[in-house]
Amino acid sequence: MATMDNDPLFTSLCSSKTLQSASEGFFDEFYQTVAQNFTGKSANWLRDVFAKQVPPGDEAARLRLIYDDPTVCFEVLGTLEHVRPVFRGKDAKFSWQRREQARKLLAEGKTQQALILASQAVMRAPERGVDDHIDQGMTLACALWTRAEVLLKALDGKKALVDLQMAAKAGFPVKESGEYYGRVAKCYALMNDPKRAEVSAKLFHQLSGFNDYALGRLREDLEDLRVLKSEAATGTADADRKLPELSGANADLPNASDKLALSGTREDTTKGRYIVAAQDLKPAEPIVVEPAVGACLYTKFFGSHCNACFAKLVAPVACPECAGVAFCSPECRDRACSGYHRFECHYLDLLIGSGMSVLCHLALRLVTQAGTPEKAIELGTELKRTLCAHEDRREPSDYFQRTLMAAFLLRCLQKAEFFGRRKTEAAEPTPLEAQVGGVILALLQSLQFNAHEIYETKISGEHRIDSAKVQYVGVGVYRTSAMFNHECYPGVSRTFLGTTMCLYTSRPFPAGATIPENYGMHFIRHPAAVRQRTLRSRYWFGCECRACQENWPLMDKLTDKPRMRCPYPDCDNTLNFPQKKDPKIKCWKCKRYANLENSLMMLDQCEDLYTKGAGAMADQRIDEAIELLSQGIALFHKLAVPPHKSTHVAEESLRVCFADKGSINRV
Fold it and tell me: CA 661: distance to chain centroid?
């Protein structure tokens, strides 16, 4: 990669968006208040004191400086002293109202609308005994009981059973309720588990006073539900998708195929460390299957996706204390609430109100999910060795803003008792707290260049390909995947199952070749000047890939007559596409006449494979489409070199097929 030669104004804008995404948040006011001190005798404080008096890489000392230096410390401490819990709490009355509205809609046959309101009732319901004036303190149990009824109507026995079990834990009188076991029996019937359904039916019979008529009616209902469920079933559910299997484990690159290797060094300012092929790779090979080190949802999806695993919500499970986030299951809730969420819960709306970017939230999340300050420091040290931060290139004003953000996030951790119960309410950090603050500051720099956007495929129609659209739902950080360098002509396709990233090759690679990813600037969609400006300002490097050096055209201007490879095995030259009917042409490198007739015939075979692959996509035969497209792409790269319009269309089609293997959101 070339050295940075950026547009300073655009670079500043790009950098600020990675720190503060909402201009109306109070963090900007915080910064402006502190920045008023940089006048008069202190006009050069950022340059001469903040940027120079702290050793490079000592982020804890840099953070400590803003608490100690009289130029800024009074405004910093004065603001941080006002950090207080701000979160969306529970409301028993609201829950009761939504529950009653849901029951009314269910009686009218409006099941989906009833499910939305019943879920709102669950989300806002306080724990047992919190508000005895409504439902005798049983608002949560009542809300879950109502939603289970709605879910049974929607033929979702699995989700209904979860709600019934949670209702029992929330205080629903199971031992005295035959109706409870009647509903449990219906759940098992919908789940095609007749043995458990029969056991539950017998418990219903016993608790209903051995009412044979009621048992007979229940068994009729169970049979009706089985029939309805079988009629509604349509193939394999999207939720049952599995992660691809790698060819073998990689000892040096966690979660990567054994066909990859790490090359380069951190000291190389041009390429750094990057991924290469350790063995020959074919198109469509899975090469990385990597869970996120940490991931955060965009706030606009807090109500529609699981805060922990990013699954689309059907029957959301609430945090016991706040109504700001939702989970797809009790397991995800318990894992989050015993981990990161216990430190974020009461400060979530404050964090959102600051206007901070999702990358700031991700920096905080990496610390909170570590669980202890010591583990957070250990993780921070490991990530600092892996992820580039370019701190030596950062402008002092940008560095200072990130330091202020780190101080704010550290204050939230102090108040949330991440460090245990403190002996003082003062904002000044202890040495241990300053170390954790330094970890946050380092992450606020490195995540700017190393985080990946996580997406799902949103399907809005009957045709899973034609109606598919990428929807970005959050961001994550990945150790191994962060090691791929950028090229404007990518060699991999990226998809996600939840927060797990899957990378597939989109073209063949010989052993030793660099395997490039793409940071959002693909040559088929963006001209070279736009790509270079964006990459220099957003990622602080200039791209020198072939697409940039040769100034490849956009998709609509691409040629269908590529340069052909010399057919002699001992020659690596490429030849111009024959312009005349005679396919013979002299290779200037090996000095032999090359007959390209066979190559041109096989190029026609590539086009035929691409056409068949497109037909398979149209018929929604995705696995067949992947096989046909990858065969055509592999054959093309044996015969010719890009750019070539049909091949790039095929590579994009392959990307769409891989996306169909990832997270799906049907609307």
Answer: 15
Distance of alpha carbon 478 from the chain centroid: 10
| Integer angstrom CA distances of residue 618 from 237, 321, 323, 614, 624 | 20, 48, 43, 6, 11
Q: Which of 191, 147, 189, 192 is nearest to 165 (CA)?
A: 147
First vs last C-alpha separation in the chain: 42
| pLDDT over threshold 90, residue 430 | yes
Q: pLDDT tens across 414-423, in order?
A: 999 999 999 8
Question: Phi-psi bin for 256: left (phi > 0), alpha (psi -120 to 50), beta?
Answer: beta
Note whether 441 and 435 are within 8 A (CB).
Answer: no
Helix (H) or strand (E) holding 502: strand 500-505
Q: What is the pLDDT of residues 526-551, one digit of tens each?
A: 999 999 999 999 999 999 999 999 99
* CA separation for the pair 157, 186 (Å, rounded): 7
Structure token digits, residue 246: 């790698």
CA distances from 49 to 38, 56, 65, 66, 429 (A): 11, 13, 9, 11, 20
One DSSP character per residue, 179-230 reads HHHHHHHHHHHHTT-HHHHHHHHHHHHHHTTS-HHHHHHHHHHHHHHHHHHH
> Contact 587/594 with Cβ under 8 angstroms?
yes
Strands 451-459 and 664-666 come out as parallel
pTM above 0.90, yes or no: yes
For 623, counting Cβ atoms within 10 Å of its Cβ (0-12 exposed, 13-18 middle, 19+ buried), the class is exposed
Q: What is the pLDDT of residue 2?
A: 44
- Backbone torsions φ then ψ of 493, nearest 5 degrees: -115, 140
Q: Which residue has the tokens 């819960």?
A: 345
Q: Which helix (H) or strand (E) holds 501?
A: strand 500-505
Q: Is the pLDDT of residue 503 over 60?
A: yes
Under 8 Å CB-to-CB from 645, ≥6 apart: which residues?
555, 558, 559, 560
pLDDT digit string (tens) for 180-217?
999 999 999 999 999 999 999 999 999 999 999 999 99
